[in-house]
Every structure is written in structure tokens, then in C-alpha cells.
């Protein structure tokens, strides 16, 4: 089955974005967070780019970005939480965050607000488009865009009154309601749009000990607001506000790798966020355009879980557990534990930018220019509480650790877009960024690393004719280093260095058959230097039972990533449309060995890095079989991948099938949708360690399931 479905995808996919990126109307100028500094059609943007439109989001019943990411080639997601919150592009990205602060490889922005460390914020109601930019975005996004960037853009207010209502019922006691209203507020000079959405589901796990089916529940409220003030013909001011109240449960892992847990202390995956972005766009004259933005977010997050995945009396206490002072015996005794991480995050970013207008071009009127200044301060405070007790004892042991992490990033950047001929453009960008961090914790560990980092790109864009655009780009990305905070690691592993990479790619974007067939294909070669590789060491648990894996980052001298991304969008006729995508990836460690695996005789050099499947594909179609009726179906597949660079456990390859039937009349639409229709088991996170006392804590693979079959009905009104 795997070979057959891959062959279908390879033979069909040749690529195009799912939808075209929005071009800002001339009468509503604003600072758009988009693929480049100037708004542009996705098909004329010389990078590997996937955009996902609102219709696609709604046809899949998608509530969170994890529900649509498989549409983008060479993009993967890691869970280990209630949602998939950690993203990898072309095999580069983080997979989790525990005690150590996270410096992301993949940036995520919602209406210009940085949520790169908080992927759970990516809910999708009233989101107009999702842009996924693959490859380093060193000039535009700096340290947050080493692997790529994900942009979510909410629906813009317009001069016309607009209303949207949506209600969904689905399996697993899932229900959602949302409403959005927008239009002119004051004489067509002040426009606004406001939305609120509530999503609730019992989740897909059953807790047999507590007799509950909602310990992995989802309870998410999203409220958005957007004010657009057309102050003058030349000045536009935008204010975006966002409120998130996410109160999800976390009870995902089981000792028998099933969907039936026995934990007596289910955890939480919660986030409460208030954020805003204030943007101004001023056409100073016919030569210069000035843009500025100020964004701020404040979040309280909790991530907690039952550390033993069981209840206290689940395992009998035999004679070997009586003497708890005997460490060898105690190691095999059952225990009960709970781990909680509470974070407070504040992010503030300020950016100023100047761009040339048509009459401001330089070098004999051939070159558009952009210069900018970016300042960002991020603060994070973590309180971690862990407690446990052995089953044969009433004594509770534990600890509380606290740490504080602050970063200040200051960057200057510039870009020149030079028309060498009527059809050939040279793009050259450079960014210099100074990173200054300060870390301290309750164990007395302090560090204040800082570094200068440089990125940018040099590219050519060539229009062969009106229908075909070829491009090639050499770009450099980077990510700041950091500190490993776990006290149980040795001093020589305490810090890790800044990572950088060079990426060379070439692509072709084309229109065929009078524009009915749109394709794009990109090939890339990436060389990472001082690649930050997440590893771990094995230590006894604080409780004395089972094993802990202590995570830490280490630099590998060289990692190379080679691959291809292709997309296709073909309107065959008035009734049929085909959409396909394909990602191929060969991402390998070249000269890094994990000490633990090396002791066991396993070498990492030459092995694929974690969460980097060798292929991903999506193949779908739309059939407009009667007036107002549309049938959509697609299959999405992914190759096996290693869960970690610290062990040999890996997922299996899989194919999921999704479909929807939609009826639309006037402003009303009814959609019957289903995801994972054949209820395929697949996994989004995996570990390899010992946690089951009935097996004397023998090391095994433990996995978190992806979503099972979910079927729902959505009614919407869009005026």
C-alpha cells in the first residue's frame, strides 16, 4: 500500500499553492505580514511557499493549524501536548519544551504577533489565509525564521457590512460556535471586524480508572478584533487584538500504547493570552513609504501530566519493595508522580521600515529598496513543581524549581530588488542581529550569553514569459545558542553555540492550459553548521523508580538536508479540480554520535534526523456535481520517521483519507466532513524509556496517537 500510494502522488504532484496569497487593495494600504516586504501574488514570489485558504480550512472542519499542515510538503509537527505545537520544516525544528527555554527554528506569527514559542495559539476561526514559507527567512524574520515561517492572517475589515456565523457538531461530543461581524464604523474611515469562537471536545482518550472520557479534552475560546483607520489618503493605522483562553486536558500516554489511560492525576495544557499589534503605513511622498509596528503579548501557560501514567494501587507491592532504603530494590518498586510547568511569557516587538515607492527607485530607476530596524524583548518565568512517592510509603518527596529567561534582539536589515532586464531581477538582502540573553534559576545557575548573527539572501528571479517564472536563491539563516539548565548534566554540556545554515534552492512556477493548471517545483540543498541537536542522557528518577531522560542540546558540526517540494492545482473543467503536493527530504547527520547509542552499538552518522520523514504527499480532488453541491476528498501520507536523536524508536508510515460534501445556497452553507475516515492509527510523538513497573521498568517505545476518525456537520452563514 505504501509503495502504491506514493507512486500515485509522485506521478500526479507537480505543485502550486493551494490558494493565491492576498494582494492588498490599493485603497486600503497596510503593513502586510507576508512572504516578503511587499505584498505579492504567491505565484510571483521566488520562494517555496504554500498558502491555505479559508475554504480549505472549513472543508476539513479544521480548528487548529495541526489539522491542515499536512497539505504543505516537507512540514511536520510534534505533539507531546494536547495539540501539535512544535513545527519542523525541511527536517529542522524543535519537538518539545520542558525546563529549558526554547529558541525556535520555525517562526509563527498571527497578524504580526510573534507566537513562535506558543504553537497552541494557532486556532483557525476567521483566519483568512495560512502562509507557510519554507527555507531560511534570514532577511525578513531573522533568528525566528532559520527553517521557515508560518503566518496566519485573520479576515480583513472592509467598507461593506459583513457577518459570519458558524456552528459545528462532531463526534466525541465536539461542538463549536463562532460569530464574526465587520464593516464601516465611522463614515468609511474607520473599519472594524470582531469575532469570537468557542470549541469544545471530549478528546480522543478514555480514562478507565477515573471513568471519564474527557481527560484529554479540548476547551478553546478565541476572540479577535481588527480596527482599520483610514486616517488620510496616505496614512492607514491597523490595530489587531487577540484573546485566547485555552483550557485543554493532557492525558495522552499509556503503558500499553492504547487510547485507554489509567492515570489518577491527569494533566493540563492551558494557555491564557492577551495580545495586540499596532501597525501604521504612511506614504510620505511618491518616493518613500514608511511602516511601523508595535506588538505585545502576555501569556500564562500550564503544561502538566501524570508522571507514572497509572494509579497508586494499580501494581501490587511485593516483598522486594518493603525495604525502601535498598536502592536496588526501590528501583523496581511502583511509584506515583506528577510534573507541572507553569510559564509566564511577555513578548514586545518594535519595528520601523522604509520602502521605496515607484519614484524612489535608485540606480537609474532599476532598484526598489527596503531598510529597517527591529527590536524585540522576550521574558519568560518558569515555575516547575514535581512530587512523587513510592507505593510502599506515605512520604511525599518533590521539588520546586524556578527560572527566568530574558532575551533582547536588535536587528538592522536591508534589501534591494534590482531589475537587471525587463524579465530578470536580482534580489539581495542582509540582516545583522545582536542577541543578548540573561538566564538565572533557583539552583544558582546563571548565564548571560550574547552573539552577533548575520543572515540574508542573494537570488535571481527570471520570467521566461507571462506563464513561467524561474528562480534561484542562496540564503543564510541562523538561530541563537543557549544554555542547558538541567543540573544533572556535566559542565561540558552546559552551553551550546549559535547555529547557522546555508541554503541553495531553485524553482519553477508555471501556468499551463490558459491558467487552468498551476504548478510549482523547488529543489533545495541545505548545509547546517553547529547544528543544534536535541539529545538526552538516562538517569534514575527522583522517586527512585524507573528512568528519566534528561534533555540537552549539543552542536553537531555538519548536517545536510536535500529535498524537493512540488505542488499542483488543476481545474480540469467546470466540474473537476485536482490538488496535489509532494515533499521529498533526505536530512542526515554527518558527524555526530550520541554517547548512549554508541555504547549500544548504534551510530547516528548517516542516519536521518528526528521528525524528518523521507516523503510526504497530499492528493485530492473536488467535484461540483450539481448546482451548489461540492464533493471534496483527499489522501495525505507520510513516511516513517525517528522520534528522537537519542534512540532508535520510530513511527510507521501512514496514509489518511479525508472527505467532505458541501451544499451552498445564497449565504448559507452546510458541510458534512470527515477526517481520517478509515480510523488509521498514527503517532505524533514517541519516547523510548522504562516506566512500567510490571515489566521491571524495561525500556520500550511509548507513543502519542494522532486524531482518530472524526466526522462532523458544520452550518455557516456568510454575508
Automatic annotation (TrEMBL):
Residues 43-149 form the TonB-dependent receptor plug domain. It is a multi-pass membrane protein. The keyword Signal applies. Residues 249-677 form the TonB-dependent receptor-like beta-barrel domain. Pfam families: Plug, TonB_dep_Rec_b-barrel. Residues 1-21 form the signal peptide. It is found in: Cell outer membrane. Its main location: membrane. Keywords: Cell outer membrane, Ion transport, Iron, Iron transport, Membrane, Receptor, Signal, TonB box, Transmembrane, Transmembrane beta strand, Transport. The keyword Iron applies. Belongs to the TonB-dependent receptor family. This is TonB-dependent receptor. It comes from Methylophaga thalassica. The lineage of its organism: Bacteria, Pseudomonadati, Pseudomonadota, Gammaproteobacteria, Thiotrichales.
